[in-house]
Every structure is written in structure tokens, then in C-alpha cells.
């Protein structure tokens, strides 16, 4: 499903954690493609492998973890073939990452201005000071920080949680990355602020034609923000494609379960629908479809092998017993 406009193509990505009980595949064969300027929501329950996927893409997995297979083709180059130095040149420049905790990016003992100037000068050392300062102020204004010229000399702890995350986002956007990987950056914030940040990120991505992978456990966020959605379950993408198509008619039973457990889809006053059962753990993983023990539609076949990708137009799913497609209205 690659086109001339494809920015990132991930094929067969596998990341293992080596433990005493053996190698545990936290990411078990992920395929994804992201077009330039496209926003992809990566959604799944806690522990499904979303963060490990994000870190694997950027070569940020440390022992006992290891990316053991796959290709991560960014603008024609497989990032897995690059040296650590070459990766460092890409990170914070052509590819940026935003974390749930802004203090993963912000240095508590440096004023915001120093950190922002450093982010520019690390990659573009010849940028004149005045021009760099101007860019920092513009970046802070763009993410909705009021009166940036009076805030830029503050330390990170002088900002509220929401404002601090905005600063981290401004730093991520400074060098106009082509791809942003955002790992639940608004999960810890209140709903109103989350909504504002989502809207601002979407606007900025559209304006600069920046692609973004937005990691979240919240399908509601994906519905608001993303063009495409990748639904992750136990280290695999079980369904992928345009948000509008997948939310209107999921083919994978897990996606349907996630949709039914979204607040707002349940009738007021009724209990939220839940997907029964637990996500697989280190000891319980077995052959076949990992969702099978929780699936109401499972067939014998599902215990024997991993469902291959079924491609339908712009989407794919991995299921032997999919939910029937919506019939075209006649
Ligand atoms: N450093 C680590 N060592 C061992 N296992 C890890 C490590 N980091 C993550 N994992 C395992 O990888 C799986 C996926 O984790 P993660 O990607 O953080 O999930 P998510 O972001 O979807 O909540 C989990 O089962 C987790 O326990
Ligand atoms: Mg995570």
C-alpha cells in the first residue's frame, strides 16, 4: 500500500525483551504505512506494545529489549541500517518524539529558552541567534502559550502540567519535523486541555504537512484527531485503515469491542460494555490468534495459526472470522 507520498513504511517489525523465561515479543510483526501529512492513531489497551513500537521506530530500545526483525523505511532509508550517530541527526530534526511525561524531554535545570535554542543549534549550528530566538517565540505562540516573550526565560517547573506539555510540543516542532511520534502526550491532562492540544496539533500538522503517529488507549481521541487508525492487540496490528471506515464498520472483533467500550456509544445510564477476559501475559501467550481466548466468534482455525492480513481497499485486518462488511446502500 505504498505510494509516492509514503513517508514511513514499517514491515514485520519485531521487538523482543529477553527475560529469564525466554524472549518475549512485545512487538510481534507490525506493518504500518504513513503518508506525508497523515495522522495515524495507534490505539490499544495498556500493555499492547504501543510505546515499544514508538521507541522501536526511533531506535530507542535498550537492553534487555532488542529490535529483532523488520524494516523501518523512512523517506526511502531503512532506519535499522543507520548508525547511532545518523539516528541522532534524525531525531529532534526530521523525526520528533513527544512523551506522556514532558519531563522526559525537558531539562528541569535549564530555562526553556536555553533548551529551545539548543534544539535548533544542535541540528543547525549556523542559525543566527536572533533568528533562532524568533523561531522559539513563534513555536511557543503556535502551541498556545500566552505572552511567550515573558515565559521563555522560565524553568519547566514554573509551568502548569498542560503548559509544560505545550513547551515540549513546541520543542518537538521547532525544526519542522516530517514525522512526529506522540506517545499519549495528553493522557495525564484534563479533558478540556486535552481537546485544545489535540486541535492545535492537528492544525499544525495540516499547516506544515507533518505526519504524526499518535499513540493512545482512547479511541475517542483517534476519532477526533486521526486520518487512519492502527488497532494494536498483544503486539500485533489487528486492524488498520481510514478512521471513518473502521469506526463505522469494524471487521475485527477486538476493534468492535473497543468501540463498544467507548463512553458515548453506550446508552446513558447503562453500564459500559467491556471486553471480557485479559490481555495475554508473558506466560499465557500461545500459537494462533492472541485475541482468541476473549473472542466470541473464534473458530478452531484461530488456535492453529496467526490470521494473515486480509486487505480490503485501503484497510486490512487479521481475523479468520471477521464481522461482516456493511452492505452498500442500494
Ligand atoms: N523494559 C522492559 N522490559 C521488559 N518488558 C517490557 C519493557 N518495556 C515494555 N515491556 C513489555 O512490553 C509490553 C508492551 O509494553 P508497552 O509498549 O509499554 O505497552 P503500551 O504502551 O501499549 O501500554 C508489555 O507487556 C510490557 O510489559
Ligand atoms: Mg505506553
TL;DR?
This protein is about 30% helix and about 25% strand.
What does this structure look like?
The chain contains ten helices and twelve strands. It is α/β, with parallel strands linked by helices. A hairpin with a 2-residue loop joins strand 1 and strand 2. The protein is globular and about 65 Å long. The protein starts with 5 loop residues before the first strand and ends in a 13-residue tail after the last strand.
Salient structural properties:
alpha/beta, eight-stranded mixed sheet, 24% strand, globular, binds adenosine-5'-diphosphate
| Structure annotation, total helices | 10
Shape: globular
| Corresponding CATH architecture of the largest domain | 3-Layer(aba) Sandwich
In CATH, what is the homologous superfamily of the largest domain? Answer: P-loop containing nucleotide triphosphate hydrolases
The helical percent reads 25-40%
CATH topology of the largest domain: the name is Rossmann fold
H and E order = EEEHEEHEHHHHEHEHEEHHEE
Low-confidence regions: 266-272
**Radius of gyration computed on alpha carbons:** 21 Å
Q: How many β-strand stretches?
A: 12
Structural class: alpha/beta
Ligand types: adenosine-5'-diphosphate, magnesium ion
* Mean pLDDT level: 91
CATH first level of the largest domain: which class? Answer: Alpha Beta
Report the sheet with the most strands, covering strand number, pairing sense and barrel closure.
Answer: 8 strands, mixed
First-residue to last-residue Cα separation: 29 Å
Hey, roughly how much beta strand do the residues contain?
A: 15-25%
Report strand order across the widest sheet.
6-7-8-3-9-10-12-11
Q: How many domain regions?
A: 2
Amino acid at each position: 500500500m505504498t505510494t509516492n507520498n509514503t513517508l514511513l513504511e514499517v514491515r514485520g517489525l519485531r521487538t523482543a525483551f529477553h527475560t529469564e523465561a525466554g524472549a518475549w515479543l512485545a512487538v510481534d510483526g507490525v506493518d504500518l504505512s504513513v503518508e506525508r501529512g497523515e495522522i495515524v492513531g495507534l490505539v490499544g489497551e495498556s500493555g499492547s506494545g504501543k510505546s515499544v513500537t514508538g521507541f522501536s521506530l526511533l531506535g530507542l530500545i535498550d537492553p534487555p529489549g532488542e529490535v529483532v526483525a523488520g524494516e523501518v523505511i523512512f523517506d526511502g532509508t531503512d532506519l535499522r541500517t543507520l548508525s547511532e550517530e545518523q539516528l541522532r541527526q534524525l531525531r529532534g530534526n526530521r523525526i520528533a518524539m513527544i512523551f506522556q511525561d514532558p519531563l522526559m524531554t525537558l531539562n528541569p535545570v535549564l530555562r526553556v529558552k536555553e533548551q529551545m535554542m539548543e534544539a535548533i543549534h544542535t541540528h543547525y549550528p549556523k542559525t543566527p541567534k536572533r533568528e533562532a530566538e524568533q523561531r522559539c517565540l513563534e513555536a511557543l505562540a503556535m502551541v498556545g502559550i500566552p505572552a511567550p516573550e515573558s515565559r521563555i526565560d522560565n524553568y519547566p517547573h514554573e509551568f502548569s502540567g498542560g503548559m509544560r506539555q505545550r513547551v515540549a510540543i513546541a520543542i518537538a516542532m521547532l525544526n519542522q519535523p516530517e514525522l512526529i511520534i506522540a506517545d499519549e502526550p495528553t493522557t495525564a491532562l484534563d479533558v478540556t486541555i486535552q481537546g485544545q492540544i489535540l486541535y492545535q496539533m492537528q492544525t499544525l500538522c495540516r499547516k506544515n504537512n507533518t505526519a504524526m503517529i499518535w499513540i493512545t488507549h482512547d479511541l475517542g481521541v483517534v476519532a477526533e484527531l486521526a486520518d487512519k487508525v492502527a488497532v494494536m492487540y498483544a503486539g500485533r496490528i489487528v486492524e488498520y485503515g481510514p478512521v471513518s471506515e473502521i469506526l463505522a464498520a469494524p471487521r475485527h472483533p477486538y476493534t468492535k469491542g473497543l468501540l463498544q467500550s467507548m463512553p458515548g456509544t453506550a446508552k446513558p445510564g447503562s453500564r459500559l460494555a467491556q471486553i471480557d477476559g485479559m490481555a495475554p501475559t508473558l506466560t499465557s501467550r500461545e500459537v494462533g490468534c492472541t485475541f482468541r481466548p476473549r473472542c466470541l466468534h473464534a473458530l478452531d482455525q484461530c488456535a492453529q495459526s496467526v490470521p494473515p492480513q486480509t486487505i480490503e481497499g485501503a484497510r486490512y485486518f487479521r481475523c479468520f472470522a471477521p464481522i461482516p462488511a456493511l452492505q452498500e446502500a442500494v
